[in-house]
Structures are given as C-alpha cells and as structure tokens.
Amino acid sequence: MNFKGRDIVSIRDFTKEEIIHILNVAEKMFPIAKGEEKSELLHGYIMASLFFEPSTRTRLSFEAAMKRLGGSVIGFAQPGTTSVMKGETLADTIRTAESYCDVIVMRHPMEGSARMAAEFASVPIINGGDGAGHHPTQCLLDLFTIRKEIGSIEGKKIALVGDLKYGRTVHSLAYALALFKAEMIFIAPEQLQMPKEVVDECMKLGVEPEIANDITNIEDIDVLYVTRIQKERFPDPEEYNKVAGSYRIDMNLLKNAKDELIVMHPLPRVDEISPEVDKTKHAAYFRQTFNGVPVRMALLALVLGVVK
Ligand code: NCD
User: Fold this and answer.
1) Which residue's C-alpha comes closest to atom 8 of ligand 1?
2) Are strands 125-130 and 103-108 parallel, antiparallel or unpaired?
C-alpha cells in the first residue's frame, strides 16, 4: 500500500483495506497525539493550512498533528487578509502555496474545490471540507472513534441524525459505513434527508438504510451521530427557521438507550445535544474531537511518504 503523494479529496477514493490501514497507523500515533511520546517524524516538512471557511477543530487538529510530529505550519484562516481579496483565483492561490510547502490542507465553501485544487497542485491536497460536498478526514476520525469506542463497525446500528442534506460529514460517513456493512438509519426532517445519490451508493454497497423523521427505538441503536443544521448553506433563511431545533438529544431521550450507546457529533453543536448529556458515558463527542489529531497525523505521515 502506498499513500505517498496521494490527495485526500473524498473517502470514495479509498478501498476498505486502505481505510483500515490509515486507522491502524492512527492507532500507533495515539500516544504522540496525547503528548506522552515525542516525535520528530515530520521534522523539516511544512504543511500549508488554507482555510477559506470557518473552522475550529479541523484546522487546530491538523496544526497540532503536524507540530506533534515535529513539522511546521504556514497558512491562513482569514482569506480576507490574502490576495483572494484582490481577485486572485483559487488555482493561483494553490500554485503559490504549493511552492512554499510539502502538503496543503484546504477548506473551501465551493463543492468540488478540493478536487480542482488537486488537479493544479503537485503536492498532496487534503480536503478539510468542500462546501456541502465531502469531509474525508472527519469521516476517518469518525470511523476511528466508533472502532475505538465500541470495538467494531460491522453490524452496528448507526443513526445519522439532523441535517443530512447539507452536512458534508454525513455524506462521507454514510458511504464509509456502508463499505463497513453497518446498519444505518437516516433521521432527518423530510426536506433535509440524505441526498438520493448517497442512498443509492449505500444500496450499491449492499446496505439499505432505513429512512425516518424521528428518533424511535433508541434501545436498538449503538451510535447516535448527531449533526448541526447547516444554517449557512440554506438558500432561504425562512427554510432554516422551519427546521431549526428539530432534534435535541437529552436525558429523557436517552433513558431507554443501551448502556454502550455512544453519542457522536462532529461539532460545533448549537442546541442538538443538551449539555447535561456531556457528563454521561454516552457522550463520545469530545473524545471524537481529540481523535482528529492521531488520524490527521497518520494522514500527513502517509501522504508525505514518511510512513508506509
Ligand atoms: C463540521 C464541518 O465543518 O463540516 N465540523 C467539523 O469539521 N468538525 C460540522 C459542521 O460544521 O456542522
């Protein structure tokens, strides 16, 4: 298996065996991510972090991952301070950034932007989210979290809840879960259900997701993957107001849940999970957030060819 020089644009570009390999490398990175072991694995390498959209976890965990491995980081989180404001094209920004670094991590509001950047760049492009399109690194850390928390993915019952239409994390995750033969329930208001293409892809992989509007039969669920309604992607704010606050995970909902049920969320949350859930053992979202570091370490080391 050789990852050197590869772009990470969509989870669909990877086989199940490749995904398992990435998760295994991430597992080895865990003590370094925790700061318990020191590493200079990426000493002398530079990562450019180009964030054209708001981010907390993706950007900070990529930067932490690079620095924990002894590498350096350049980049921006406010495109307003760059030549983009002067009308520079994405292609030119990418050509510029790549001449200063060994790998580029990019987040951009336009769907397809990461694929386009990958065509221009000779260094690997890692997609940190392209509009409502893909979020492959989040998907990998989500898979890593499920495996770590409940032991396996295959055969588990996983409910994806919230904004399945505009949420890019669930577009990536649904595909990967189908690849791993999980059972899936897509729970969303009608107008925010999973795009047909994603449902079709799951079917092609032999998994038929159940489609629902409400969270029922909580006692059967192993993973409740909750998402934020993606306000910024609604063409009409009125439409957002109709669905805002559709779901809220609270103690009352969880009272019949199995002990091992985990609640995941890519974060940020708005009001989808009541803070009282945070102290329960169901709450896996902050551990999930941390898992971004070892998973992104694995990806950086693999695409830079430092780890095989
Ligand atoms: C998500 C994103 O940006 O797609 N956040 C993340 O990367 N952890 C989820 C969201 O914004 O709702």
Assistant:
1) 266
2) parallel
